[in-house]
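> Could you send the MUT7 Exonuclease prediction when you get a chance?

Sure thing. Input:
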Amino acid sequence: EDSLIFLSMTMWFCVSQLKEEARRGFAGLEEPLAGLLAMLEGSGDWKGKGHSLGYCITTELQLWMEEHPAAQQSGIKLKKLQARVLRILAQCPANLLDPLISIYQLHTADRNYLLGHVSHLYHRGDYKEAAVLSIKLKLQPDQDVEKMCTPLLLQDKTNLVEDYVGDYPELQSKLLQILDTWCEPGFNIRDITSQYQGLSGYKPEKFNRKMLSKLVFRLLDRFNADPALCPNVVNQRHLRTLNYLFYKRFVEKTMTQENWTDHVQSTVGENRWLQGHLMQLLIRHCDLNTAARWAQRCNLPKEMLPYGVADELQKLQEQERVEEAAKADRYEERKKEDYYQLPIPRANIHFLQTWEETQRCWEKVLRPGQVVGIDMEWRPSFGMVGKPRVSLLQIALQDEVFLLDLPRLLEQAVTEPEKEKLPHFIQRLYSDAAITKLGYGMSGDLSSLAATCSALKDMDKQAQGVVDLLTVDKQVDVVSPEQSDEDRGFRQPEKGLSLLVQHVLGKPLDKTEQLSNWEKRPLREEQILYAASDAYCLLEIYEKLCKDPASYGLSLDLTGSLVGKPSMKPKAKKQLNKQEVLSPSGQQCEGHQKKTSCPPAPISPKEFSVVCDNMLQGLGRYLRCLGVDVQMLENEDDHRKAAEIARQEGRVILTSGLPYQTLRSQVAEGRCFSVNSSEKAKEQAVRVLKHFNVQVSLADIFSRCQ
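Output:
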């Protein structure tokens, strides 16, 4: 340490001496500006990266010139110096550009002369240097943006391209239009690349429509530009969305007909090019009847209709009525059997679109001691630019639910007092600690609320008295008595709030309306019931957990432990109830009255085989590095597959949270271990090894194929 201190002090002393000598040298020279150029021209030291001797002297002269303005040159002498320094700028590193431009006042030089010098660099093939110098001298408005940026894009220097147009909206628009032209169907990108054959650093694999499309959307977002500037790229994005919607509906079969129809109609709009592609997709995935329905809806001319579609147009109206009636019956029947049902009458769900209608809602909601369930809906973005804006705000009370049509209410607010009504109500609601607000993933909801109304941007910091049931979801450990393990057919496995509702209330939420177009009015009856259920179920979950928190592995003082600020992250550790005790490994053990058993005999990692649940893949990889025989579930695997593997292969199950209760009953005692999902993989591994007394030696590390 003493040597390092001595060395740093010596270096500091040397640099200080250098600066003093440089200043004495400047003062002794008749023309210090010419002297600096002579030094730079005669030395190659400054051409490398970092703080060279040339860099130190140049920056010191810049400071000295500010203190001695009389030493500055002008007229013919300055022009000659500027001509000399331009030759140096083409070779010097980036950190020397600004000092030299400042010292030799290049911003005052003849603009045509500067443009000519940059043009010379460009034609010499120094495209990056030409662009950097143009940016430093602010020459972009007098240059051809396509000519300057094309070779940079070919060399994958997109960041430099963004900097080149960064301060000039007109150039941003021109660049976006050029890039969009290159993405036009039928345009041959080779027509561009062939002009730059032999280009140094050319990366043809990165210069393609996919890369250009990503770049266009990044620039649209960064420059907040109008997407209408790029019809080809936007159309291609819409076409990809269209293909994705067909995949979700007809291949994966996870989107309802109503939601699919809304999104297809919104995506295609009145664009004839997209409507033509829609017809082709319909013929491929559906039948003539379905294609005819869409042809009718889009009002397509006959010349655009595929063969056979026109003949179906006469049969549609009656067929539609029959199908809709049958579908509605099936939907209602399935919902009542399989899904959570609202316990309040339909008449108690109020859809509010005027300020007069909201008055009664606000009076009831803002009463002290009130407990309210809050949820929000917005139109899915499908990868489009921008944050989602809330289309519907749901507020549930014990006996009724209010659905606030935010776009309509904000549209009606014309005067300043009217514009303040909604933000004022929401601020009062969230900041009042006497009102308990229930939500699920509140941070995401508040973020979207801020994007909808700028006056609410700091709402997450002001919120008090909130209970985020996403946090509870991470803490719940015991399956509700109403939970059924029977097979529910081929339905997708539940997750998120729907899974919590299933665990606590016995049946999951029907999420088929989740991907609805929530901006479209009027809302369908199915959307209204879905929105009301999403908010109201929070009240029922909270009430049940508060009545018997111990059955769910929660603290007896549930309200005290949960009420606070909204958060996306669960608490690191959960409080244990009276019937629980924490073992040294972190494993929850029931019945602390039982005597602690002797630790198992030590074993090596090679003798230890486990199966990791799909939320513990990081732990699985870590244990494998230590030589443990690990098998891991895939993301799409059901948790119960772990028990099947454990029984067949004699493995220990490693899991976390709710699945632990189900899995431990399916294997022998001590063959299922629950880890803390909030810990890092290394910490989890230490707990597992300690609990099972696995002794790791140096030879075990990486002894297995990774």
